[in-house]
Design brief:
The complex is a heterodimer of chains A (about 80) and B (about 300). Chain A has about 80 residues and is an all-alpha fold. Chain A is about 60% helix and about 0% strand. Chain A has 4 helices and no strands. Chain A has helices spanning about 5-15, 35-50, 55-60, 65-75. The relative contact order of chain A is 0.20. Chain B has about 300 residues and is an alpha/beta fold. In chain B, strands 3-2-1-4-5-7-6 form a 7-stranded mixed sheet, sandwiched between helices. In chain B, helix 9 (about 145-155) links the parallel strand 1 (about 135-140) and strand 2 (about 160-165). The longest helix of chain B has 26 residues, at about 55-80. Chain B starts with a helix and ends with a strand. The chains are: A mainly alpha (about 80), B alpha/beta (about 300). Chains A and B meet through helix 2 and helix 3 of A and helix 2 and helix 4 of B.
Chain lengths: ~80, ~300
Amino acid sequence: MPTFDELTAVFRDVFDDDELVVTRETTAADVEGWDSLTHVTLMLRVEKRFGLRFKSAQVASLKSVGELADLIDQLR
Amino acid sequence: MTDHADTLLAYVRAHHPRSLAGVEEARRLDRARFDGYAELLLGWATRVLGDQAIPRTVDAFVRFSSDVNLAQGRYEADGAYEHKSYRECYEAVYADRETMDDYLWGVYLTNFLWVHHLELSAFFETRFVARLPERARLIELAPGHGGWGLVALHRRPGTQLEAFDISPSSIAIARSLAGAAGLADRARYEERDALAVEAAPGDAVICNFLVEHLEEPARLFEVIHRLLAPGGRAFVSGALTAAQVDHICELRRESELVLLAEEPGLRALETLSVHPQRTLPRARFLPRSMAMILARREHA
C-alpha cells in the first residue's frame, strides 16, 4: 500500500474519523484535536504501523503530513 | 503586566500551534501567576538572550515537551525507562554542550507553561519560600537552569544562595540568569556533583527533579539531611512514572519518595503530587511530579 494511503489510515484511527482526508499540505491547524499530545500519539502509531523508530528531534520538527510522509519514505 | 505573556502566546500560536492548547490551559488555571512568571522568567531570559529570548526558550520548550511525551510513549510500550545509568544519559544528553543548553532552556519555561508545574511553582512559593526565615542561607542542589533558587532569592531579599550542579551548562546559564535578575551578589554557583557537596548546613535546601536522574537516590537524601541545619526546611521534588530521556530511577509511588526522605532522618511536613490534565490514550502510567517540604525528624 502506498505510504500516503497507510498514513491516512493511521490518521483516521488516531482521530477516530473514518471520513478524515489529509493531503501533503495538511497541518495541525487543519485537524481538530491535533495538539502536542495527539501528535506524539500519532508518531508512535506511525512507528508501529511502518516498523520505524523516530529520533526525538524529528518528531518535534514535523509540520505537515507531507513532511511526515517524506520522512517515512526516507526511513523505510 | 502581560507583555511577555501575550508575546509568548502569539509566538506559540504562530510557530507551534500544536502546543497552544496546553499553554492556554496553564494560563486559564491561574492567569495572574502565569503572567507574573512570564514577566519574571522571560524578563530575565531577555536580558541574557536579547530579542531572541522568546523564540529561543519557546522553541526549546516545545522540543523538550515533545521529547518528554515521546519518552512517555516509549515507557508505556516498554514498561521501563529507556536508560539505566548515568553513563548512558551522559552519552545521550549531557556530553554535548549545545544539547544541554537547549535542554535547560527547554525546562526553564515548564515552571509555568506546564499546567501541573504551575501548581507546583505556587506550592513552592506559598508554602516554602514565603516561610523562609529572614536572611536565610539557601543551598540548592542541581539547580539546572537556576530558576527555582533565583525565584526564592527574588521573593526574599536578604537571602543568600549557594548552588551546586554537575553540569557546566547549568552553571553558565544559572549564573547568567542571576546576573540578569540583579541577584549575582547573592547567588554563588559551583560545578560539583550534588552527592559530593561539602558545605556548612543551610537554613533551607532546594533540590528539584534530581532524584529520578540518580543511580543511588538514597544517597541524595543523606546529603540533604547533612546539609540541612536543625530547624531548617528542604524543598525536594521528583518524578513518578514520568519518563524522560535521562530519567533512570523509576519511582512508582509517592510513598517511595517519602520513605527515601525518612531513611536518613528527614520527615515530610507537606507534600503535593501533581499531574498533567491529559495523558496518552489508554495509559497505564500517570506521570506525576511530587514535591515534599522536609525537616530533620528531631526538629519536625
